[in-house]
Amino acid sequence: xxxxxxxGRLDAAVLELGRQAGISVxxxxxxxxxxxxxxxxxxxMPGEALDRLLAGTGLRLRRIAPxxxxxxxxxxxxxxxxxxxxxxxxxxxxxPETVAPEEIVVTGTxxxxxxxxxxxxxxxxxxxxxxxxxxxHGTDAIANRVASLSSTHLGPGRNKLFIRGIAxxxxxxxxxxxxxxxxxxxxITYSAPDPNLLLYDIGRVEVxxxxxxxxxxxxxxxxxxxxxxRAPDLSAAEGQAWAGAQVVQHGDPGGDAGAVxxxxxxxxxxxxxxxxxxxxEGGYIDDRERHLEDVNRxxxxxxxxxxRLEPGDDWTIDVNGLGQRILGDxxxxxxxxxxxxxxxxxxxxxxxxxxxLGEIVARKQWGSLELTTSVALAEQYVSERFEGVDSLDPEQxxxxxxxxxxFTQVNRIDMLTTETRLAxxxxxxxxxLIGVSAIGNWARVNRQLNRDPEPVSLTGVRNRAEEATxxxxxxxxxxxxxxxxxxxxxxxxxxxxxxxxxxxxKAFRVDPGARATRSETRLLPSAALAFxxxxxxxxxxxxxxxxxxxxxxxxxxxxxxxxxxxxxxxEAGIRYTAPRLEISATGSQTWWHxxxxxxxxxxxxxxxxxxxxxxxxxxxxxxxxxxxxxxELDASLYLNGSKVSVPIETxxxxxxxxxxxxxxxxxxxxxxxxxxxxxxLEDNIELQASGYVRYVGRSTLGIxxxxxxxxxxxxxxxxxxxxxxxxxxxxxxxxxxLDSRGNRFALGTPFLIRDRNQITPLQPRSLRLxxxxxx
Length: 775
Known about the structure:
This protein is mainly β. 5% of the residues lie in helices and 55% in strands. It has 2 domains: 2-85, Phage tail protein beta-alpha-beta fold, CATH 3.55.50.30; 179-231 and 268-774, TonB-dependent receptor, beta-barrel domain (Maltoporin, Chain A, Beta Barrel), CATH 2.40.170.20. It has 6 helices and 46 strands. It is globular, with a radius of gyration of 26 Å. Residues 75-102, 391-401 and 651-656 have low confidence and may be disordered.
């Protein structure tokens, strides 16, 4: 690959090389950080670039894992060239001598801050650690590894995500999400569900915990989930294909297949990378009323393409596009009758999620300065059908006694984003950035009652939100081991909305002022401290604010306005990093005012309201231990406590909201234990094995006496085996080893929530046998 590293300090040079080459380079001995290194330019593999960078310095380079290196004092030993980057082949390597480096770069800070200097909670996953079997589960693969991330389970493409217990409701409506989701440089959701993009050909995943308003603005109340796909390689033609067959106990079989190819068009200047995939999840829910088996099959098809151009003068231009369609044949829920894998319903409840994204990103480098500008357009279409509309309010607008009907809701969301920022990277995480951004989100919700002899359109709503922002952050070191970060974001938001499909006068009868266009201006300050108590210990504290603008929502056939909400969070933590052991602990307290929540009204129809003020307390612990080469153990635990401290009287909720209510979908405890093993066998064969057990504690479905049903309190398990030789590999993956049922989500259709005990079980024990081939 082409690298361009200017001469200068060692710490700045390895950070830049890590960004360009996608590798991790550790410098455990901070006394060598200021060593001057030479400039390196040209078409080089990462190991070759590091060798040239260190030539004449007397420092020693040690490769400790694929894509991971340590720089230490001493004469450089003789070493073999590292293997080429995945996914072209999976060469056999000896078990690592030691462990991953201390210095991991947090790129979600928008200026590449070393992990030891980052003043906040963060979880980073290497894309190579996500197997093809896991990647086919999309966002669930991340939630299985990150205890602070949780999700609803209405179905792939319909779920809401939450980080660190900041959860507003179980339903997707016109409110902005509490988690900012990003694909590379671009935001992909606003008032839309998680599109559940499948995680194939991924470079890394970062979960930034807690509000991130300074860098990411509105809609990052709980944190940010950022997935970074692999970029095109300008020098190597490579590719990989894979396929797998799945057997589901008590259900139908499934399977998946895909391929990725990287083609340099003009060596070291222009390259294309393309990916295509298809996945079928076999159904396992039976319908007793309709006498059908395994009704809940889900099909996913998608792909993406990326073009990278490096015309010279340290410019990089990326053009990316992706698309994905999810088709669910029926809802994912069951009831507690029988074996917990069946229900009785009168009709199919299919759903669909189409997602498209196009972006252009341009970067220019001047030594330690980097200019980044981007523009992206995301579109999402979500269609859902629910069973069980048995009766309506006798006054609005139908007779009380009518035959059962179904309810259809269609969301169409278009979002245009643009951002330009200038960043400076200094030593030990110091530096600054300043930027401007703009966002436009246009969302339309149409609703329909499907009843013979013909469908009836119900009140819908249009919302338009436009934001313009100036933001900045500065990290400086007033003392040798202390760094201070100050930041702020000034946002001006313009909001507007209107009714759909009904008479305007009737729609705004309850709240005539709702149709007016209005504006909000918010200044959000932030501050953080990071103290390096010793070479392996960092203590940090942080204060951050977040907000979401208001909007319009439907309550039965009326349009009402809901106010913007805001929160403030303080957190403190400690991070210990040693060659074989990493431990972190964080605690936070959040005060949340005028909480927006997407709910259901007394008849089961979606509704949105401000439900009051709340508090969330959380404690997170995580650790990673590598006792010997080739073995890694990980553990994490997350504890949450939440409360609606000052409830607001509202007619929109099912049941009353009182001061003892807890926020929905906030598990009181969640945790994970994992282990992995890697070794070289005879005949150039490599064995990799990994497994986990994950516990999700109790939570409630929603706010109010009826929605306050318990869910959670289950354990999930998984096992992955990979046997590789040369460019090929055989894989075996087993999920839900104990064939547990559990209850991931206590809802299937909101119209039957009073009458039926709905559950969403785990997928029964499943086995996937797959193969991979690199070329």
